[in-house]
Amino acid sequence: MKISNTYLQLGTAFSESINPLPVADPHLLLWNQSLADKLALSQGLPDNENALAQLFSGNDLLPEASPIACVYAGHQFGQFNPQLGDGRAHLLCEFVDDHQQRWDLQLKGSGPTRYSRRGDGRCALGPAIREYLMSEALHALGVPTTRCLAVVTTGETVYRDLPKPGAVVTRIASSHIRVGSFQYFAAKGDVVSLKTLTDYTIDRHFPTLKAAANPVLELLGAVMDKQITLIVEWMRIGFIHGVMNTDNTAISGETIDFGPCAMLGIYHPGTVYSSIDSGGRYAFGAQPSICRWNMARLAEALLPLIDEDPDKALAQAEALIADFSPRFEQAYQTMLGAKLGLDEIQQTDVALITELLEQMQEQQLDYTQTFHQLTRSLTEQQIATKLQDTLGDWYGQWRQHIGNDSKQQQAAQALMQQSNPVVIPRNHHVEAVLQTCELTNCSAPADALLKVLRSPYQMLAETADYQDLPTDNDRHYQTFCGT
Ligand SMILES: Nc1ncnc2c1ncn2[C@@H]1O[C@H](COP(=O)(O)OP(=O)(O)OP(=O)(O)O)[C@@H](O)[C@H]1O
């Protein structure tokens, strides 16, 4: 394992050097062996659970690690906070895998830092397991995401609304650079550090842009494209992030922060589960426009580097941001087309897609189930008949679009099978698993759910146990940022 600390080397304006605060009694609850194998991490790590627990609680450090807490700012629910940062996280080090890809190895819940404000620097076990489960689910679904290597219980109690068992979660990310990282330096008027961060980001994530005529403008466009891909993928599987603040928007285009996230059941664009999002700012269907808003905040932060002439910089940034909606719409319609087995989208297809979504909303149909049933209906007459009853004329029109030829139908079904999961991490199953794991301090329920979530496009023997809809259709379901 080749370890380095390149973010630390950017200088003291970017982070605080600080070690994790040791915990009383660390035990390894979840360990992601397949991720460790994929990143060739195991060679550099101990092979016994106790030593891993010491390492991934922060009690022990890898010899070459120089832990830091990174500073950033961010718009939280639209309000700018100029001073945020890793208040309970330590970036232990970076490592480079066998494909020369650089990764961050970060602990979360590992103790207070300069950026903790009134927080205790700790994480409760439930949210740590949620982050592990949801990020693994997203990864298996094909959605760009940060991932978890381990969850270690600490043997300590953290005090939230009630006393909770504590945990440290280890996160692997292609970096932890956020829109808020740029906003921090822009708000301070520290253009030198802003330039350092921008050069570092281009070098680390988008090295081909170095040769561009205007690398900073190109960076903005590249980040925007990655965010569009990300949000389209969230919408494909029905993911509601719940807290799309600019400090939770990673430049890499990976999903980060699973605090109040949830999955869409019944299709409704206004669906919100987060208890603190009473205005629906981060509702399922609001995610594209919020993403655009976040990209506009990144553009603002980068203005001094786009052009020396402020008017020219603004004009160029505005032109790029104006392109967000058409670029998004194209990617979004293509994705929905694929969910319906259509590999090229015409104007009539857009009308067909829109009508289906309207029907799903009116009839309160489950998002995942509906697309899964449509997929099956191409080869299962009973399901086709049932859907015809539910969707009326729309169903016949859709079948016409697919065509009668068996080759066309096979190709459509293959496309749909890749686009429509048979199972998602349904909110009631995730909650049940978190509760049982918390109560028993045992990973078995999480392991069982993970087995199914790791094959979301396949019916395993156990898949049916996790496909059911919640009895109340999640009408009373709420998620909490409470950590
Ligand atoms: N218990 C805590 N102690 C100290 N700081 C905290 C705590 N919980 C959250 N924070 C800080 O509050 C801010 C917002 O928290 P948020 O829940 O969005 O992030 P997080 O889950 O801690 O981290 P990340 O965004 O890296 O996943 C962050 O700067 C975070 O470090």
Automatic annotation (TrEMBL):
EC number: 2.7.7.-, 2.7.7.108
Reaction(s) catalysed by this chain's protein: L-seryl-[protein] + UTP = O-(5'-uridylyl)-L-seryl-[protein] + diphosphate; L-histidyl-[protein] + UTP = N(tele)-(5'-uridylyl)-L-histidyl-[protein] + diphosphate; L-tyrosyl-[protein] + UTP = O-(5'-uridylyl)-L-tyrosyl-[protein] + diphosphate; L-tyrosyl-[protein] + ATP = O-(5'-adenylyl)-L-tyrosyl-[protein] + diphosphate
Cofactor (UniProt): Mg(2+); Mn(2+)
Active site: 247
Listed InterPro entries: SelO (IPR003846)
Keywords of the record: ATP-binding, Magnesium, Manganese, Metal-binding, Nucleotide-binding, Nucleotidyltransferase, Transferase
Residues engaged in binding Mg(2+): 248, 257
Pfam family, one: SelO
Superkingdom in the source lineage: Bacteria
Binding site residues for ATP: 85, 87-88, 108, 120-121, 171, 178, 257
The keyword Cytoplasm is annotated on this UniProt entry: no
Family: Belongs to the SELO family.
NCBIfam families in UniProt: PRK00029.1
Known role: Nucleotidyltransferase involved in the post-translational modification of proteins. It can catalyze the addition of adenosine monophosphate (AMP) or uridine monophosphate (UMP) to a protein, resulting in modifications known as AMPylation and UMPylation.
Designated name of the protein: Protein nucleotidyltransferase YdiU
